[in-house]
Design brief:
Structural class: alpha+beta
Strand content: 15-25%
Oligomer: single chain
Number of domains: 2
Order of helices and strands: HHEHHEEHEHEHEEEHEHEHHHHH
Distance between the termini: 28 Å
Radius of gyration: 32 Å
Number of helices: 14
Number of strands: 10
Largest sheet: 6 strands, mixed, barrel
Length: about 425
């Protein structure tokens, strides 16, 4: 008998016995389904989370650098109070960096600072605890914030601190009940401002700033409410390097300028942090690698239980079919045929369980995505890995029962 014929005969016999014991087959498949569902669901969730974060980071490019008080990742010999005593970046420092920076390295510069606990009031509605983002320079071109309607600030409005404002999508909808607010006025902390634009709906973005509920003001006008170095205010200088440069060169240039501005001596440590978007991307693989290991452990326990269930059912199946095994051997069936018959049955059960588990993940993911703005990303490699895990469990769970059946004495088997 050729290998192909052996495979066909084994699969046909396995299917017949599985159809004859539907409930038992279903219970055997259930354990594998739960295990594969856990693994594939967690892998899909982490993969989708990673892709959402990367898409938000990559949208801005990899040559973006933030000069800030606090580092994104604590390290070195500093204690938290060392960071606490650092000064915030200022408008004057932004202007000096823009003026003195090497134009062969620096493409765009911007400055912004954030503060909360503000009040926005229109003729229809009043909203409290509003966050204000005060901006200057090439802020919108660097951050890639899109507009739903209206426009960005002109150089004149930014330089002279005009009372113009840009609203986040949700805030604009709340204040004007869905009507177009461009050209209309609101009061921010009692000061009248004119709406010149509304930002596009961002939704529940991961890995980037949230701006659906903010008011964006020119930095000079926003200083009426808060100064960049005031308590509860965080400020940043953003620098976008040219595409063909090395980040290390940009890093060196920023340190040179900032240390000069802050009059730091050669032995003094930097009292500012240089944060890069590449730091986020570099940490993603390591972070999600750990999550994937946890997923394998959680799903592995479920698969282990399912594997024991498959092995138990296969031992029962061997015992029930002892007479059939004896008859097959008496008619000349080789050990390999008997072995493959039970082994394929165990693998087939596991594959069916894996397919059901994967289908459940896909269905539930689509259902979840309809109720949220979180983008689900499916990966064929995750699905293939899930089926691969199930085949491995089938081999491990089915090998002992299959070998027991293959080694049976046909005379003894026919007597039972």
């Amino acid at each position: 008998m050729t290998a192909v014929q052996l495979l066909k005969e084994s699969i046909a016999l396995s299917l017949n016995f599985l159809r004859a014991n539907k409930l038992r087959s279903f219970l055997s498949v259930l354990g594998i389904t739960i295990g594969i569902f856990c693994i594939v669901a967690i892998f899909t969730a982490t993969h989708s989370l990673e892709q959402n974060i990367r898409s938000n980071v990559d949208k801005m490019g990899d040559k973006i650098v933030y000069i800030q008080k606090w580092p994104w990742g604590f390290g070195g010999g500093y204690q938290w109070w060392d960071y606490l005593n650092r000064p915030e970046t200022t408008i004057r420092e932004y202007q000096r960096v823009t003026k003195e920076g090497n134009k062969n390295l620096i493409k765009n510069t911007a400055f912004f600072f954030d503060f909360s606990s503000n009040t926005a009031k229109s003729n229809l509605e009043e909203v409290s605890d509003v966050k204000i983002t005060a901006v200057m320079g090439d802020f919108f071109s660097i951050n890639q914030w899109d507009f739903f309607t209206g426009r960005s600030f002109t150089d004149f409005e930014t330089a002279n601190g005009k009372n113009s404002a840009i609203l986040g999508y949700n805030l604009a909808f709340t204040l004007f009940a869905g009507a177009d607010p461009v050209g209309r006025s609101i009061k921010i902390n009692g000061h009248k401002v004119t709406i010149i634009g509304v930002l596009s709906l961002q939704g529940q973005s991961i890995g980037g700033p949230q701006y659906d509920d903010v008011v964006v003001l020119p930095a000079r006008f926003a200083t009426k409410f808060k100064k960049p170095n005031a308590r509860g205010v965080s400020s940043s200088i953003i620098i976008k390097g040219r595409d063909d440069i090395k980040l290390s060169s940009l890093d060196f240039e920023i340190k040179r300028i900032m240390r000069s501005l802050r009059k730091l001596r050669p032995k003094d440590s930097d009292n500012f942090a240089i944060n890069k978007l590449t730091m986020v991307s570099d940490n993603l693989s390591q972070t999600f690698g750990v999550i994937d290991i946890v997923a394998v452990i959680i799903g592995g326990f479920s698969l282990l239980v399912g594997g024991f269930g498959i092995a138990n059912i296969m031992f029962v199946s061997v015992k029930e079919r002892t007479g059939i095994i004896g008859l097959q051997k008496a008619l000349g069936a080789e050990r390999s045929f008997i072995l493959s018959q039970f082994l394929f049955e165990a693998i087939f059960l596991c594959i069916i369980g894996a397919i059901i588990g994967i289908l459940l993940v896909v269905v539930l993911s689509y259902a979840a995505s309809t109720f949220s703005s979180f983008q689900i990303y499916f990966s064929s490699s995750i699905f293939i890995s899930g089926i691969g895990f199930s085949i491995l469990i089938g081999l491990i769970a089915g090998i002992a029962p299959a070998m027991l059946a293959a080694r049976m004495d046909p005379v003894v088997a026919l007597r039972k």
